[in-house]
Every structure is written in structure tokens, then in C-alpha cells.
User: Which sequence fits this backbone?
């Protein structure tokens, strides 16, 4: 390594520091600073006032939006984890390694594919006279109003997070040492007991990570609550967009954004702590 | 609680049906003659494609998206490769902070990135420009490129590069003739995936784009009006584009790891 000219490592290391410093850390710091700025005559002026914080944090609409967003994201994380688990279990234990690889292949594709258009497609599918109600109609029920409701928003959240949650769960389940499971059986544990006492604890990291990512993505999402949830009640992301786009109140939007980031960091750290905690 | 294999088969089927239903729906309804999404379907038509692609602003949006995706993919792949190589080759102080910085962007909600970028690019005099969108997309896509290149480097015998040095190659030459060729499938794969990420991103683009709309931003703005089957037509083209890119990205990686 001694022969390496000293500039060589820096050429590879510096680009990220420069780029992310300029265009990732910089914008975020500006946003935090902006939350203390003043808006006068529709123009922002650099300042250090707490007016925006006071204004937002004393308003009921902020806290009700906060509550709705937090509860919905928690519910989405719980439902996604629950619905994903049997599928991940099947992919980890009931199919061949090749089938598992292809299943993950086909889960990665939609994760990176036009979430916006997929949400629009749900608008079509869940419409009053759309295909889903047509199927329900065959069973002699409905039609149900599924759009512009919490249900609609939840379908959207699950569309967003489901592939990722299944992938993370499958990886952690497939990585479990099979000997552990066989040992549990040989010792006379029932399948249910094996699942609860051996498999779930052993796959804990992946299960928690799946739920955390589901929470993070749903918490920040704007499309589902807006187009499928009917934006009533508004979520924090809708609040940010309304405040930014219509009111010229960027500093107030920045307050909401900082609160969101603080929440996400808290949740992520707590969850990762729980995931990697040594067993008591 | 021992469940029959049939249960798991059906469950997987249901899961994939849920995940792929929107993509299939959009495609089916893009060829359906009825204006509103009712059952049963009307007859087959390509009129929505014709009306959509007769509009110059649709072509304009596709051109913008292409420019943004290709530029952002080039930049973020270069950035991602350099970062992955740094992680692979060098140890240094604060490395974990460095890696956190490299991988953090996708965890920040897009709405927040949009707001922060809007303010920052405004300060730099870049708001409303295509350049601004490219910058923002590079930030968001680079971690994916980094992850792909890092996985590939993991498969490289570290002594390969050292052997090149011992045979008298400069580190630059070793990079050119050993590391880059070995990583080439991952580099192309990263390029495809980051292009897909950029092509599909619309929230930050919507915040910073001004009049230079990309395709998803245009869809977002049409959506705020009425139900319009043209979205299905444009959306199907978008699906085909991003699915092709993501499939290509994965096949490039799978083909090599199997060796």
C-alpha cells in the first residue's frame, strides 16, 4: 500500500463528501435554519425567531395531522408485516432456492416501478363502478365506497411497502440455521411453538427492519393519502405541500419537516436498538 | 398448525396478484374504449395512446425525463462506484459516518427532500431548471448504485488488485484493467437501476421543476384534474420503460453471480 500516491484514495473518497455535502447535507441544514426565518410581505428573511415553531406547535390541526400520520404509518407497518409473513415464510421454507430467487426478482421490479401510476390504477380498481366492486357485486354485496377513505390510503401504503417487507422478511427467514428448527422439532416442540419461540426470534432483525421501513415509507408518503385517502384528514406530508405550494409559508413547512425527521429518527433508532439488543 | 402446501401456494398467488394488479389494470384500461373505469369493459382501442402522444407537451415531458434520467444515472453511478470502492479498499477515521452519509438519502421522506431542495436550489439560482432535478435525483439514486457496486466488489478477490500493483501497474492502471472490468456488469446494472429511480421520481421533481415537467410530474398534474384514460396510456409506457430498466439491472447481476 505504501506505493500508492497519496492523491489516489482521495479521488475516490472526495466525490461523495463534496456532492452529498453540497446537495444533501446543505439543503437539510438550510431547511432547519429556515424554520427560524421570518416571512414578511411574502418574502423570507433570514432571522432567528421562534414564531413559526410557536405557530405550528400550538395549532390543533398540526397535532391532529401528526396523530393521523403516526397512527396510519404504524397500522401500515403492522398490517404489512402481518400480511407479508405467510408469504415470506412460504418463500423461505416451502419453495426451492431458485423459485425464491425469482420471487424476489419479481418483487424488486414493482418496488422500483412508478408508484404514482400504480396508485392511479388503484383509483380505477377501487372506483364505485370499478372492477373490485364488480367482483363484490357478483357475491351480491356492495358497491362499497373505498376511495377517499382511510381504507383507500391503506391500500396505497401497502402497495408501496409490501414488496420491500416481503423481501426483508424472506432474507432473514431463509438465513435461519435449519438445525435450530429441527432441534426444536426433535425436542418435541409443536409447529406453533417452533414458530413463536424459535423462528420469529431468530429472524427478528429482518422482521423489525421490514416494519421500520414500512413505517418510514408510509409516514412520509404523500400520494396515497392524497389520491386514495382523499386528503381528509390531512397527513403531515399533505400539510407540507399545502403550506409550501399555496401559502408561500416555507418556514412553517420546514417546522413540519423537522418534526417528521425527528420522529423518524426516534422510531428508527428505537427499532434498530430493539432488533440488535442481546436477548435478556 | 401445519398448513398444507396448497395454502402457501394460494397465499403467494394472492400476494403477487395484489402487487401486480395495478400494473395489469393500467395496461388493460389503456386499451379500453370507455372513458370511465366501469365493468364490463368496452372494446379494444388505441385512441388514448393516439390522443396522448399527439400532444407536444407529452413528447416534451418524455424528452425532459430522458435527459434527467440519463444524466442522473451517469452521475449517481460514478458517485456510487467511487463510494463503494472507497468502502472496499480504504479504512479511515469516521468511516461509519461516511457510509451513513452515503446511504441515508433514501430514508428521508421525498416531500422533505423536495422542500429542502427547493429552498437550496433557489439560493444557488438553479430553481425551476432541469439541472436542479438532475442534482436532486443524483443525491437520491447514488445509494442504490453504491449498494450494487459494493456487492460486486465483495465478490472480487482483494489480492487481484494487489497482484496488479506487484506486477508494476500503477493504482490507476490497476483500476482500469482489473477493477473496472470486473465491476462492469454491476456498473451497467447500477446505471439502469438509477435511471429507473430517476425516471419514476416525481415529488422532488415536482417541487423543483418549475415549467420543465418530467413525465411523472405531468401525470401528477393531470391527476389533479379529472379521471383521464390518457394517464393509463402514458402510465403503461412508463411501466414498460422502468420495468425494462429494472429487469435489465437485475439480469446483469444475476448472470454474473451465478458463476
Assistant:
Amino acid at each position: 500500500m505504501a506505493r500508492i500516491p497519496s492523491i489516489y484514495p482521495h479521488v475516490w473518497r472526495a466525490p461523495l463528501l463534496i456532492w452529498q455535502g453540497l446537495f444533501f447535507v446543505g439543503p437539510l441544514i438550510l431547511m432547519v435554519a429556515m424554520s427560524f426565518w421570518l416571512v414578511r410581505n411574502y418574502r423570507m428573511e433570514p432571522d432567528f425567531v421562534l414564531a413559526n415553531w410557536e405557530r405550528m406547535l400550538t395549532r390543533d390541526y398540526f397535532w391532529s395531522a401528526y396523530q393521523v400520520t403516526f397512527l396510519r404509518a404504524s397500522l401500515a407497518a403492522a398490517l404489512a408485516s402481518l400480511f407479508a409473513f405467510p408469504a415470506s415464510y412460504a418463500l423461505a421454507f416451502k419453495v426451492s432456492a431458485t423459485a425464491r430467487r425469482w420471487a424476489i426478482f419479481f418483487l424488486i421490479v414493482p418496488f422500483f416501478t412508478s408508484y404514482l401510476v400504480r396508485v392511479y390504477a388503484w383509483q380505477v380498481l377501487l372506483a364505485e363502478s370499478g372492477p373490485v366492486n364488480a367482483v363484490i357485486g357478483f357475491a351480491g354485496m356492495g358497491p362499497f365506497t373505498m376511495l377517499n377513505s382511510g381504507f383507500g390510503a391503506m391500500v396505497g401504503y401497502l402497495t408501496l411497502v409490501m414488496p420491500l417487507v416481503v423481501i426483508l422478511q424472506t432474507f432473514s427467514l431463509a438465513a435461519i440455521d435449519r438445525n435450530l428448527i429441527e432441534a426444536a422439532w426433535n425436542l418435541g416442540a409443536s409447529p406453533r411453538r417452533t414458530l413463536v419461540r424459535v423462528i420469529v426470534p431468530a429472524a427478528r432483525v429482518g422482521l423489525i427492519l421490514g416494519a421500520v421501513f414500512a413505517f418510514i415509507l408510509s409516514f412520509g408518503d404523500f400520494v396515497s393519502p392524497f389520491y386514495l385517502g382523499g386528503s381528509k384528514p390531512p397527513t403531515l406530508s399533505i400539510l407540507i405541500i399545502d403550506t409550501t405550494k399555496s401559502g408561500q409559508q416555507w418556514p412553517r413547512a420546514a417546522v413540519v419537516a423537522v418534526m417528521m425527521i425527528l420522529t423518524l429518527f426516534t422510531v428508527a433508532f428505537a427499532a434498530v436498538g430493539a432488533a440488535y439488543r442481546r436477548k435478556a | 398448525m401445519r398448513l398444507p402446501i396448497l395454502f402457501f401456494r394460494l397465499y403467494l398467488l394472492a400476494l403477487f396478484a395484489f402487487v401486480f394488479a395495478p400494473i395489469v389494470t393500467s395496461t388493460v384500461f389503456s386499451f379500453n374504449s370507455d372513458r370511465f373505469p366501469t365493468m364490463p369493459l368496452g372494446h379494444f382501442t388505441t385512441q388514448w395512446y393516439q390522443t396522448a402522444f399527439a400532444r407536444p407537451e407529452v413528447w416534451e415531458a418524455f424528452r425532459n425525463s430522458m435527459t434527467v434520467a440519463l444524466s442522473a444515472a451517469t452521475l449517481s453511478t460514478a458517485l456510487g462506484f467511487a463510494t463503494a470502492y472507497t468502502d472496499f479498499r480504504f479504512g479511515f477515521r469516521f468511516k461509519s459516518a461516511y457510509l451513513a452519509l452515503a446511504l441515508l438519502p433514501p430514508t428521508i421522506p421525498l416531500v422533505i427532500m423536495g422542500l429542502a431542495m427547493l429552498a437550496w436550489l433557489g439560493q444557488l439560482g438553479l430553481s425551476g431548471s432541469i439541472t436542479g432535478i438532475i442534482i436532486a435525483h443524483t443525491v437520491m439514486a447514488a445509494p442504490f448504485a453504491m449498494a450494487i457496486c459494493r456487492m460486486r466488489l465483495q465478490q472480487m478477490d482483494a489480492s487481484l488488485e494487489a497482484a496488479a500493483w506487484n506486477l508494476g501497474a500503477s493504482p490507476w492502471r490497476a483500476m482500469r484493467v482489473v477493477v473496472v472490468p470486473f465491476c462492469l456488469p454491476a456498473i451497467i446494472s447500477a446505471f439502469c437501476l438509477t435511471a429507473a429511480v430517476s425516471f419514476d421520481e416525481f415529488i422532488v421533481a415536482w417541487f423543483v421543476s418549475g415549467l420543465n415537467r418530467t413525465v411523472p410530474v405531468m401525470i401528477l398534474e393531470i391527476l389533479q384534474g379529472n379521471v383521464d384514460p390518457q394517464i393509463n396510456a402514458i402510465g403503461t409506457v412508463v411501466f414498460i420503460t422502468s420495468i425494462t430498466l429494472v429487469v435489465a439491472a437485475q439480469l446483469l447481476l444475476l448472470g454474473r453471480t451465478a458463476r
Remarks:
- DSSP finds eleven helices and no strands in chain B.
